[in-house]
Amino acid sequence: MLPLYWLTVQTVGTAIRGGWKPQVSGLEHVPAEGGVVLAGNHQSFADQLFLGAVLPRHVAFWGKTEYFTGTGPRGALNRGLMHGLGVIPVNRDGGAASDAAFESAVPVLEGGGMVAVFPEGTRSPDGRLYRGRTGALRLAQRCGVPVLPVGITGTRDVRPRDLLGRGRPPVAIRFGPPVDVTGADVRTATDALMATIRELSGQEYVPHYAEKKKAA
């Protein structure tokens, strides 16, 4: 585990686990080692914080390329944090740029790491679960690794000020058994994956893609 990531888990992660006491189930399904794609619903910025806090392994999350290309002292600080936490840069413009970001995740998975992917492609705009994009399955098949479904509830109500305040909303994280997607049709397998995530999260399902918010 990367030193900075370990330090973050021991500090921020401990505060989250102790202060929030998230309900966690299915941790026995998390492989102790080996490459795996972690695929879950996406409700809030806090999803990554809670996943990192409760998982016993390093999880490589995605971060927008702007965090890696900034200039000046702030840019240098952001780059140091991103590299220290093992964040994978992703271009949110889509197309070939996003495909390049998936290529950046291949060495992580082939090296036995865990990469988190939110198949909806963006945060849910209304709390419902939207149709999943096939990237998570394509990435898993490319690297020959399983997909671990996860359902997260409660993070939609978490606000930045809640991290230090009181009256924290309850959060639950449920992991399902790893899914072997070898040879599966990616569209069919993605729909089945989203059905599992729906069972774990209890969300209402919407059979079309969520629209990504445009940057201001």
**What's the gyration radius in Å?**
17 Å
The H/E string reads: HEEHEEHHEHEEHEEHE
CATH class equals Alpha Beta
Beta-strand level of the residues, as a percent range? Answer: 15-25%
Shape: globular
**What is the distance, rounded to the nearest whole angstrom, between the alpha carbons of the first and last residues?**
36 Å
Largest sheet entry: 6 strands, mixed
Helix run count? 7
Give the helix proportion (percent range).
25-40%
CATH topology: Glycerol-3-phosphate (1)-acyltransferase
**Average predicted confidence as pLDDT:** 89
Number of distinct beta strands: 10
Protein name: Lysophospholipid acyltransferase family protein
InterPro entries: Plipid/glycerol_acylTrfase
Keywords: Acyltransferase, Transferase
Pfam family, one: Acyltransferase
Describe the structure.
- With 216 residues, this protein is an alpha/beta fold.
- It has a single domain (3-62, 94-206), classed as Glycerol-3-phosphate (1)-acyltransferase.
- The chain is built from seven helices and ten strands.
- The strands form three sheets. The protein has a six-stranded mixed β-sheet, sandwiched between helices. It has a two-stranded parallel sheet with strand order 4-5. A two-stranded parallel ribbon has the order 7-10.
- The radius of gyration is 17 Å and the shape is globular.
- The mean pLDDT is 89.
